[in-house]
Every structure is written in structure tokens, then in C-alpha cells.
Amino acid sequence: MILCDTSVLLCLVDRSQLRHASCIRAIVNLRKPLVTTWPCLTEAMHLALRSGGWPMQRQLGELLLDGWLTAYAIDEDLFPRILELMERYRDRPMDFADASLVLVAERTGYRQILTLDSDFFFYRIDGRESFEVLPVDG
Prior knowledge:
CATH architecture: 3-Layer(aba) Sandwich
Structural class: alpha/beta
CATH topology: Rossmann fold
Radius of gyration: 14 Å
Number of helices: 5
Strand content: 15-25%
CATH class: Alpha Beta
CATH superfamily: 5'-nuclease
Distance between the termini: 23 Å
Number of domains: 1
Order of helices and strands: EHHEHEHHEEEE
Largest sheet: 5 strands, parallel
Number of strands: 7
Oligomer: single chain
Shape: globular
Mean pLDDT: 94
């Protein structure tokens, strides 16, 4: 399974993004579904609303309905770990959505991530292992 960050989710549905076509090509070549988190999906929905309104939000929702995307649920008892991660990387700073993806990597062992965010070259899984950031040619 491949993790997917907010930046790619928005690029998939927003044709005005410079890397829209590159993100489309990247996911066509990858195994589906991509795995994201509810915080990333919420962030992408907010950005899609601001950029393209309901039609763009609908496209994003259809990624879930069509099986291209699945959202990993994070239980409340894991929120302290998210806050620990945000504190550890506060100099970046790490947002809640990014922390949720690091947490999912720690819980599942998924290392591959599709992102346009260079911070994932810096973040570590369980404080040790690096992410394998998959290329999105642009």
C-alpha cells in the first residue's frame, strides 16, 4: 500500500495545479488503492472547496467511491502520539495531517508515500526509518 498526502490529493482534482498531470500519471502506474488519513482528506476537501467549490470536492470524494483511495481511521487513543510527533518536528513545523501519515506508517509498516511535500524526506518512521518518497515527475 502507498500512502498519499494532501498535496497529491489536491493535485489530482485541481487542473490548475502545475503538477496535476504528473500526479494523474503517477497514480495510474501505482497499485491502488492509495491510503490517506481523514485529516489529510479533510484538509484536501477544504482546499478543494476554496479552489474549485463543490465540483472539485465531488471529484475528490469520487476517488474514495471508485476505490482509488481509502482513508485510514485513527483511534482517539493514538492522538497523544500525533501530538508527540508534532512536538518532535515543531521546527519544521509538522501539521496534524502530516503527523497522521507518520503515525499510519508506524502502525502499518507502509513506507512508500506519494507527496509533493519535501518534509517527508526529513520525517522518520518510529524515529529511525525514512520514507520512500515516490517520484511525481513534473
